[in-house]
Amino acid sequence: MKRPPIYGVMAEFDSPTSLVNAAREARNRGYTKLDAYSPFPIEALSEALKLPRSKLPLIVLIGGILGGLTGYLMQYYVTVIYFPINIGGRPLHSWPMYIVITFELTILFAALSTVFGLLALCGFPMPYHPVFNVPRFALASRNRFFLCIEAIDPLFDRKNTETFLESLNAREVSEVAH
Amino acid sequence: MADEKQTADQELRPSAIIAPGYTFGTVTDQIASVVLTRRTPLFWVTCFAAGFSLLLLLLWSMALLFTKGVGIWGIKIPVGWGFAITNFVWWIGIGHAGTLISAILLLLNQTWRNSINRFAEAMTLFAVACAGLFPLLHMGRPWLFYWLFPYPNTMGVQPQFRSPLVWDVFAVSTYATVSFLFWFVGLMPDLATLRDRAGNRLARGIYGILAMGWRGSAKHWANHEVASLLLAGLATPLVLSVHTVVSFDFTIAIVPGWHSTFFPPYFVAGAIYSGFAMVLVLAIPLRWVYGLQGLITDKHLENSAKVMLATGLIVAYAYIMETFTAWYSGNVYETAAFWHRMTGPYASVYWFLITCNIVAPQALWIKKVRSTPALLFLSSIVVLMGMWLERYVIIVSSLAQDFLVSSWRVFHPTRWDWATFVGTIGLFTFLFFIFIRLLPMISIFEVRTLLPEAKVEEEAS
């Protein structure tokens, strides 16, 4: 696919309410390649943008199960196969004594997969992103709210999309260079 | 007039955890300005200098320890654990309040935590760093610490997984890692704020790298929220398990005064008790120096004081039950251990600890005490001292007088015991003040969510 001349068109809003309304409106218009930016999490926004459910819990579940298995099997291998010590004839496979480390490694692996999963799902670390080309976007981490419709959207049209965004009560609409 | 006052009061009440008049912009500017200013307050310089001097003392005593060995401490058989393990348990306990605030209160939807969780988590991290130092220093040959981990080696030996000391290694290192991850995930959006607001090119670059490209997109936030909740859910059982495992170091031994089934909950309550005391010791001067009374309000101090009072009562109950079971068990060694504790060579320490931990904190029932920061600061110091003495009495008095009278020996700390302990307070202060200067000590994005303007007004559709 040919790369469009710009990344997209971005509108700036004053309040979370106008951002959510604008996002919902754009979604209803049929735009699909769009993203909203805010200085804090807004629950209604994911719903307005119809974002899919996060895959993170599944990643964490798998990580946790792997951690638990690693912990248990490591101890089993060491105490039963690799380095068995006979203490007064007690069983080598002393599973109650394995619980603590199994638990700790479950938590450790699950927590590591949460963080690495989060980074992967967000595409971090990301050294460059076009939205930062809009000078006012620095306020997205302070007190302003932005909605960006990307040029790769099938409905995107430089003129029409701009007029549409302007009609949504935006403070300012600007083009985002690549 | 009366009506007007009442409505004003009602408007104030729901937001008592944040002063009225704040907006997204002012919250951001106020918290970020502590970091992004060129001006460093004299208070910061003084505390940092004090912390740094004590850190040098720590390094000096560590250098001496490594050259001469643990003989520079007062530990002699039967008291082999002395100050090092006392300090370890005390520091790790302090860390627990940070995780309680950041994880458990998040799951319980206690939004007042939003303005104190960041520095409480930092406190956890640095307290765990101080705690982790002690078992290493106590090892005698600290350069062989990696023998604690199972790794393929030419000696053909492996750690004993049935020992609580090995459990401790796993519990504490997992705790340190998870606390760091939780802290870092919470910091990402705020690092982005600092990146966007820093005037200095170098600062912008460093914060930018650390923020990893955070741009506050709805997709980021959705994943971030899920990640925070999951980490909170993982950290909650973890924090309870860590002090439980620490208490196993004692309960699984057969030393009278240690061998007791209720140590795990007793230790966890004590940990939260001392941790909240440390939160108050840090929060009270900080909010005063940086003028953050609007964000860390009297409500926060009062809530923390209430948690302290509640956990203090659990600790008091544990002391009573500990003594009761010693008597009720009819075990002669157990009874003797407690009798020695109350009347023997450690009696003065024991009664001083009871005064600090049980008697003095009863003052927190009085609202006037809870709402006067100076008094709260004082009672927190008393609790911190009391909790340190508690660990000391449990460890040292139980070891000093065990089964055989002929092996009894009273422990006398040397100046290097004190130097190492005070030195870690220096390490903690040093790390904490670096944190205050370089990173936002209050979570900016979580405070934004508390503002009334953060609410999305739904249209009637």
Task: Describe the 3D structure.
The complex is a heterodimer of chains A (178) and B (461). Chain A has 178 residues and is α+β, with helices and mostly antiparallel strands. Chain A contains five helices and four strands, in the order E-H-E-H-H-H-E-H-E. In chain A, helix 3 packs antiparallel against helix 4. Chain B has 461 residues and is mainly α. Chain B has one domain: Up-down Bundle (Formate dehydrogenase/DMSO reductase fold). Chain B contains 16 helices and no strands. The longest helix of chain B has 34 residues. Chains A and B meet through helix 1, strand 2, helix 2, helix 3 and helix 4 of A and helix 2, helix 6, helix 8 and helix 16 of B.
Outline of this structure?
The complex is a heterodimer of chains A (about 180) and B (about 450). Chain A has 5 helices and 4 strands; from the N terminus they run βαβαααβαβ.
Question: What is the element layout, followed by pairings?
Answer:
The complex is a heterodimer of chains A (178) and B (461).
Chain A: E1 8-13, H1 16-29, E2 34-37, H2 43-48, H3 56-82, H4 95-122, E3 145-150, H5 158-166, E4 172-176
Antiparallel strand pairs in A: 1-3, 1-4, 2-3
Chain B: H1 2-12, H2 24-36, H3 42-68, H4 82-107, H5 117-138, H6 164-197, H7 201-211, H8 218-251, H9 263-289, H10 298-328, H11 332-343, H12 347-359, H13 367-370, H14 373-400, H15 415-438, H16 444-448
Helix pairs in contact in B: 3-15, 4-5, 4-8, 4-9, 4-14, 5-6, 5-15, 6-7, 6-8, 8-9, 9-10, 9-14, 11-12, 12-14
